[in-house]
Design brief:
Shape: elongated
Low-confidence stretches: 1-27
Mean pLDDT: 92
Number of helices: 1
Length: about 400
């Protein structure tokens, strides 16, 4: 369908749409109209290749690639966008650069889809809220998000709810100088299939908080880089991805972490790296549970001049598991570790001074099988006595405190 902007009827129609006075429609059921601040766009039961531009003035939106309204149709007074496509292969692009809060909802229906979002929030708005909701039916999808904000106060929520089919999700969230209070809430539910998720945060905000649940992602790479001095950094991350890599770099005065998830009965490879670049209080709570297959878990807390409080639990279930948790910070811990049945190797290695505030903690338990359990305090420990129980089997131990059911020491 060819758009003739100079045709008098077409020109009137575009002008009316721009004013939000007329809902443009086509024989394919395509439509676009503003109702109570929401721009509702439907491409009908056909594939879509469209672009939506928001800004630079607040509330101004241009739409390209939808025959019913013509390329470049302008809509005003927009605070939210609801974009719906039909079955088929979709390619959508959103370019947002506007000093405003915005609610963006995208539903690509069934079939393959690629969605690219570039979202910029300038410093000319003191406080803004952004929400992103992406949904799809069955079909492989790719989602790319590049968000950058210099607004002093910014809250961003991102939700995905998808049907079956392999998913690829890649996001970069950058909060530049001028950001003061920033919070992100990310919840992914990707449906059946094999899913790769990569999220990178570059933070310069004085106070930053990330709460993220990667849902049923198969592979997760989550990187939080906050190398400049800030007052507080909070990361609450839940993953069940069988390959999980979390890398956190912080120069905050206070770092608060909640890390873990419930992992399925597959071979899991889980790696956490936390680097604290300047003296700070680091509070880390673990809540990690794996299934009945051989798992490999490695966690490292690096920052010799910082103080680590490490609590929570790690339970690896049945299987021949490998676990190593290492800290070179000044540490205190109430961590409970249970490696379950199987011939497991588990090590808690504290390179810095260690204080144990509660009796029987840390607790290191082995189940049925020939386990190797190690609790090492390289610079000594003060406080209460930890507990090591190797359980049934022919087990080896290296450690201190109350030691039970361990046949040999090394």
């Amino acid at each position: 369908m060819t758009c003739n902007r100079n045709h008098p009827v077409r020109a009137f129609r575009l002008h009316a749409v721009a004013l939000g006075l007329l809902a443009a429609t086509s024989a394919w059921g395509q439509s676009a109209a503003v109702t109570n601040g929401t721009l509702n766009i439907s491409t009908g039961p056909i594939s879509a290749d469209a672009k939506v531009v928001v800004g630079p003035a607040p509330g101004v939106v241009q739409v390209f690639g939808i025959a019913a309204i013509g390329d470049g149709a302008i809509f005003n007074g927009v605070r939210a966008i609801n974009f719906t496509t039909g079955a088929g292969e979709d390619k959508l692009q959103f370019d947002i650069d506007s000093p405003q809060s915005l609610d963006l909802r995208i539903d690509t229906g069934s079939g393959p889809a690629e969605t690219m979002i570039s979202w910029r929030v300038p410093s000319t708005i003191a406080s803004a809220v952004g929400t992103l909701d992406i949904r799809s039916g069955a079909g492989a999808t790719k989602t790319f998000l590049n968000l950058e904000s210099t607004a002093p106060d910014f809250r961003f929520g991102w939700n995905m709810l998808n049907g079956g089919g392999n998913k690829e999700v890649e996001a970069k969230l950058a909060y530049k100088a001028g950001s003061v209070n920033v919070a992100n809430d990310v919840v992914l539910s990707l449906g059946g299939g094999t899913h790769k998720v990569a999220v990178t945060v570059e933070n310069e905000a004085s106070k930053y908080g990330l709460r993220m649940n990667s849902g049923n992602a198969t592979e997760l790479a989550a990187i939080v880089q906050s190398p400049n001095r800030t007052s507080a950094l909070n990361v609450d991350l839940t993953s069940s991805a069988r390959t999980t890599m979390v890398d956190i770099q912080s120069a905050a005065d206070a770092l608060d972490l909640a890390l873990g998830g419930n992992y399925g009965p597959v071979q899991n490879n889980i790696n956490y790296s936390v680097v604290q670049l300047r003296p700070a209080a680091v509070n880390a709570r673990l809540g990690l549970r794996t299934g009945v297959v051989n798992d490999k878990i490695e966690m490292k807390f690096d920052g010799e001049t910082s103080r680590l409080s490490l609590g929570g639990f790690v339970e690896t279930g049945a299987g021949n598991d490998e676990l190593k948790i290492e800290s070179n910070m000044v540490s205190n811990t109430t961590l409970a570790v249970d490696v379950g049945a199987g011939s497991d190797v588990a090590e808690l290695f504290f390179k810095g001074p260690l204080f144990l505030p509660l009796p029987g903690l840390p607790r290191l338990l082995g189940g049925d099988g020939n386990d190797q359990l190690r609790l090492i305090a390289e610079r000594g420990a003060t406080g209460q006595q930890p507990r090591i129980d190797c359980g049934p089997g022919f087990d080896a131990v290296r450690g201190f405190g109350v030691i039970l059911n361990c046949e040999t020491s090394n």
